[in-house]
Amino acid sequence: MDYEFIYSFKKPQLTGNWFLDLNPLTKLNIVIVIAIISILSLSWQVSASIIAFYFLLAALAGCLKRFSKMYIKLGLLIGSLLFIMRAMFIPGDHPLFTFWLFTITQEGIDKGIWFSTLVVSICGAIVLFSTITRAKDFMYALENLGAPHSTSYIILASFQSIIDLGDRAKLIMDSQKARGIETEGNLLQRIKAFIPVMGPLVLGAITSTEEKAIAMEARAFSAPEKNTHLSELRKVPLWEKLFVLLVNISLILFIIWRFI
Amino acid sequence: MKGIELKNVSYQYPLSEAFALKNIHYTFEKGKFYGIIGPNSAGKTTLCNLVRGLIPHFYEGELSGDVLIEGKDVREWDGSLLSTKIGYIFQNPFTQISGVKDTVLEEIALGLENLGIDKEEMIERVINVVKLLKIEDLIKKNPNNLSGGQRQRVAFASIIAMDNDILVIDEPTSQLDPESTADIFEIINMLKSQGKTILLVEHKVDLIAEYSDEVLVMENGHIAYSGTPSDVFSNIELIDRGVAIPQAALLSHDLQRQNKPFDFITITNEQAKQQIMKRMSCVNGSY
Amino acid sequence: MGAIELKNVTFAYPNGFIANENLTLSINSGERVAIVGQNGAGKTTAVKLMNGLNKPTKGNVFINGMNTKDKTTAQISSYVGYVFQNPDDQIFNSNVKKEIEYMLRYLKLDEKEIERRVGRAVELTGIQDFLHMNPYDVPYSTRKFISIAAILAIETPYIILDEPTAGQDMSGIKALTTLMNVLQDEGKSVITITHDMEFVSDNFSRVVAMANKQIIADGTARKIFWNHDVVKQAKIKKPQIGELASDLGLSEDIILRKELVDLLINKY
């Protein structure tokens, strides 16, 4: 038996990466501060620098690959969509060129760049946080703050049930295909093929929710005792507290510098 | 000693006119292994739900008669306390995994976390149950990626770790292959030897005949027959009523019909083997 | 050439995981075949190759001579009916009769034909009493028969049943036996995945044993169950009577109760 693995639960499970090992709430604090700076700066240059900064932070946490994979795709999609919408529709006094019904103005371009970098930078905060924080650690941290045990269970279980639901949808799709329902072809055919999937999927989800409730009850889910935890978070060290303080003070200084 | 007493218990599920259980009168004694068999929809799972306290704490509906768990009426029990008293394992290996833990080790510890067991003891108990069920090779794996048989073993481990006195087990092997089924029966037999009270619903009557102390045959919501496996399975009426009986008993009945009976109705392969060997040695001896 | 023909078929999932390796198997019209083996041995992926849900990564699968690679699953479904292990993955209508009729209406058959086919499927599966109920108000074991009826109504020459005995009681297993006999009399092939060894020895002359993604043996039930290596490798079990005969050191290759009874009557 792998006792080393078992006994690793006796201590907080640290990765050895100082940034990754920060308390989930510390990380949350940091990304929120970054997002606020991006919002208040009203400057695309700041937002763009922040976007670049995320990659640095992700690299620091050793998650650059995972982060980039998700963020670049999402960022390009949202960023370009928002930019095009703004650029096309915002009127201004400095038209650059006209095509079909649209006149593209300098103002539209400027606002488009500003808005899309802003939104992409806010998205980045969320993506970065979810990349560097395990959901269960975050829930545990919230529980420590007094959030009810059942809430964190439901949130965590929802993540898994989305995966399960996807797997089951595929299985049901297969079973409908196997009985002869054509799932490939034009849009109408696809929509028609989709109906048979929804019924079993929803009903299955309901039954499995009931069964899961019974199964969790059997695991003393609603026992009156205050529950304990096998894996725990590190007690926040003094330097980390100071670090959070520093981050928050910089935010305040930034606000003062920017607005007063 | 009395573990669970049922006195004239009847029950209807909400919105259902039919009785799921009718006039059940039975006492489950501590430390015994009860095999519950019978056709589908005869009320086996409902009986489990009742004994487990899910009726009336989870399912509403009409419950009459008395259900006494360790002498105290089930209605007076706190539903959550019952789960610390009575463990429950059922068919579906997929819904019994919490879905919130990344490793089997943490999955097994979940019940103990809920019971507020301190960490040192928790680790101790998880280690013991992992050894007991021989699932050392699973502890680091993600429970959401296991096979049905593996999940079912983890479900057993998770419940056994909570150290309940009574275990209600509803068709644990119906979705498993022969090898995983044998593993599960080995686990159940070990629990029996630890003195646990076990109520097992199972279609595999050959295994029920081999392991249980008492057999209950359910039919249309009531207990049609009960007694030791020999008493119950030697009754040929069962077949006509759509209840499977062990192959060894069928063999016995066949021989009886052809006027070459065994000394008694055998219900396990071991008994049949002894009887046949006896007969073979007689024949061989006469040569 | 067999009606269903797998030729050196390897199947890998898109992520590269190989589920079946070099399967060669030929099943004739009217044949009844049980596929046995441990969970994860590749039984389900193998039957999914037969109805086109899985397309071979290497090798070819032919149904009545046509290559499954050239057809969609829906097209193959009029030749090969496949009843999934879990009926809840299949049933979606709010009424049993509608569920059975669904594909027939989808195929635009006329009313009279629909009525005939539904009547026959219902009779074969014995679900007359449930016809006007919601499938989700009937027990799981009955739902399984509803899902079988819905496939039977399509009247395909080949039918695959995935774990039909799971959760069935004695009467359910008896109904399955009768059903398979009728199908065989009609010249249809039935391919069944099962863990129930008594069911196999009672009902199947041909058994295909799978282990570790491959077919390791293909032969009569007697030959498979009395081949110690195959039983061990496929992690199956002899049926109870076979086990007993083996414990007694009887060399007669017994797998059925009747055989043991006859032996005991005649010899001992």
Automatic annotation (TrEMBL), chain A:
Keyword Metal-binding: no
Highest taxon of source: Bacteria
Chain ranges passing through the membrane: 30-59, 71-92, 112-132, 242-259
Annotated Gene Ontology cellular component terms: plasma membrane
InterPro entries: ABC/ECF_trnsptr_transmembrane (IPR003339), ECF_transporter_component (IPR051611)
Alphabetized UniProt keyword annotations: Cell membrane, Membrane, Transmembrane, Transmembrane helix
Compartments in which it is found: Membrane
NADP keyword on record: no
Membrane topology reported for the UniProt record: Multi-pass membrane protein
Pfam family, one: CbiQ
Protein name (Swiss-Prot/TrEMBL): Cobalt transporter
Automatic annotation (TrEMBL), chain B:
Compartments it resides in: Cell membrane
Main location: membrane
Membrane topology, as annotated: Peripheral membrane protein
Keywords associated with the record: ATP-binding, Cell membrane, Membrane, Nucleotide-binding, Translocase, Transport
SUPFAM superfamilies reported for this sequence: P-loop containing nucleoside triphosphate hydrolases (SSF52540)
CDD domains attached to this UniProt entry: ABC_cobalt_CbiO_domain1
Domain of life assignment: Bacteria
Protein name: ABC transporter ATP-binding protein
UniProtKB/TrEMBL annotation, chain C:
Coiled-coil stretches: none
Residue spans crossing the bilayer: none
GO MF annotation, one: ATP hydrolysis activity
Pfam families recorded: ABC_tran
Signal peptide: none
Zinc listed as a keyword: no
Superkingdom of the source species: Bacteria
Cellular localization per UniProt: Cell membrane
The keyword Oxidoreductase appears for this protein: no
Gene3D superfamilies associated with the record: P-loop containing nucleotide triphosphate hydrolases
GO CC annotations on file: ATP-binding cassette (ABC) transporter complex
Residue span, ABC transporter domain: 4-237
Keywords, alphabetical: ATP-binding, Cell membrane, Membrane, Nucleotide-binding, Translocase, Transport
Membrane topology: Peripheral membrane protein
Family under the similarity heading: Belongs to the ABC transporter superfamily.
Name by which UniProt lists this protein: ABC transporter ATP-binding protein
Taxonomic placement: Bacteria, Bacillati, Bacillota, Bacilli, Bacillales
